[in-house]
Request: fold
Amino acid sequence: MKMVWTMLVIIQASRARLFKEYKEVQREKAADPDIQLVCDDSNIFKWTALIKGPSETPFEGGVFQLAFAVPEQYPLQPPQTGEICLDILKNAWSPAWTLQSVCRAIIALMAHPEPDSPLNCDSGNLLRSGDIRGYQSMARMYTRLAAMPKKG
Reply:
């Protein structure tokens, strides 16, 4: 019975934290125009982020959609984002991070990619071999395919 009670307390704390983050996102929408965070109407543990590609990068002009699956143990455990290779979503997670700050870290990763832990092995190989032009070309191609509106 004590374990069930403990889990209920953790879930309530997690909900309270997420409601607090929701209020902050609503209050500061204009402060960070590169990130739009939206909570699912029926489930506080499901969020969607729309992230604008950073300027002066191959991702510029793209809008990337990211789904967050927030665990009931949040913020003690990081949100799940699929296949993003980012240390703060793995072994460097801290309860001080918020969904908004995770989005900012993703934008920073887009602006300064980490070749030693790439999701796309080809991109990592291009960066490690010093072929910045090849990497940028590939990143622009994927941005056009996945994060830009289709033309007529």
Summary: The mean pLDDT is 90. The radius of gyration is 17 Å.
